[in-house]
Structures are given as structure tokens and as C-alpha cells.
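Please produce the structure of this protein holding 3-methyl-2-oxobutanoic acid.
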Amino acid sequence: MTIPELREKKARGEKITMLTAYDLPLARLLDQAGVDLILVGDSLSMVALGYPTTVAVTMEEMLHHAKAVRRGVRRALLVGDMPFMSFNVSREETLRNAGRFLKEAGCDAVKVEGGQGSVESIEAVQMILEAGIPVLGHLGLTPQTAAKVGGFKVQAKTAEAAAHLIEAALRLEAAGCFGIVLECIPSQVAGLMTQRLSIPTIGIGAGPQCDGQVLVTHDLLNLTGGFHPKFAKVFARVDQTILKAVEEFRQAVEKGTFPSSAESYAMSEEEWRRIT
Ligand code: KIV
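Below is the modeled complex.
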């Protein structure tokens, strides 16, 4: 999958799919299933590392996981999520960190949250793009700065806020982003943005009119331990499958039915006689 192919999909009215992965086994499965983009999201922080917010995850942790994901991805476009304070600190830090996702982890692009009204975020995006690194924008509910946008709430609910968001999206498009993730905004606003932008919009909690959809894979597989945002549909209860398999393993070991001869190795009779 390439950036021009994503644009072509938008032009043909074909939907784009994106999911998150943090390790090789899931990355391999998502790639085999034909997902267009795989995101090593900073949701890693809460979903896989157990931190309370996405703010905590470090650049080193993001790279560690992105490298593992890279080893499982052949077809999809791989996007590394710039964690909190990896950009907007200084020009050097921003460029070094964005570059590390490509050079060290083998990502194809980075995602940068924010830009709605924040001059710094737009400047960071421009700087990264000028260095030749493709950028996926992220507007609406931006978890890294959730406090600033009023908490984990639906954004752009008023006409003024929607107009402001559309302006921000047009700025990101003009800067050269190849697409924009729209998180938690009313469907009508996402639909309007999708019409006004020539680059693809990828929604999460932004309704069906976006050019594509993204979910946190652990949400769709029911592996997040109970919390479900309204937009996160569970497509398979993989937690139940894992629980059943692990219980069966435990019972088989306790009863002595695992391992059987089928899962064991034998020594030849002759060698056995020599030691007994
Ligand atoms: O970090 C993440 O997983 C994300 C997606 C929800 C878009 O940013």
C-alpha cells in the first residue's frame, strides 16, 4: 500500500481500513487480512503497557514495539504515532524523533496529533514534511491533549467549533499531510470535511461518511478488560477464546493428560538400557 494508492481509493470511493498493532503476531494477522494501514498507536501506552493515559509512553517504548510490528508487515502502510512531547519541544527533537520511526523502526510515515488552533503542531507537521517524512494528521479528540480540548468528549459539536476544525484540516492538507484521522466528532461534520478535503479522512467515532475507518484492534477483539467507548464495536470476543484455551491447558496439566506421548520425545530402547 502506498500513499498515492490511498488517494486513488478515495477518488474511486473505496473505503480505507486502518487498525493498530503493537507486536508481531497481530501485525502479521492484520496484514494478511488486507488492512491498508497499520498504526503503532500511542494507545500502546494504556492498552498494552497499562499506563493510565497515552501521555506516559516514551519514544523508546514506541520504537521497541514499532520494530516488532515492522517484522510482521509486508503489504500495509506502516505508521508510527509520535508520542506526547516527542514533537513541539524543539525543531531538533521533532525531526530526530520523526526520523527515528523511519530509520530505526522502518515505518513508512508518522502520525502527529493536534493542529487545531495550535500553531506549534502545524509547524511541527511542516517541519517533518519538509524533511521528506510523510505525515498523517489527527484532529478532533486528541487524547494526548484531552485536558485542553475539554476531556474525552465528542468535539466540534457547535457550528463555530466545526468551522474551526475544518480550517485546521485545510491547513494540515495545505501543509502536505497525506490523510487525517478524525476522532470523536459528529458524523455530519466528518462528512463535510471528507467532501472538502482532497486527502483521505480516516474516522474513529466520526461516522460512516469518512473515507476510511480506524479502530484500536484490542477494542474490536474485546481485549481491553471491559471499557468500551460507544464507537468501538466488538467484532470478536477473543478474550473468551483465550480464557477457554488457558483453562483447558491448566486442567489438562492438573489431570496429567498434557503432555501426552504425542507432545513428548523418546529415547531409543538401546540408549535407555545403557543408563538403567
Ligand atoms: O493511538 C491510537 O491508537 C490512535 C488511534 C485511535 C487513531 O491514535
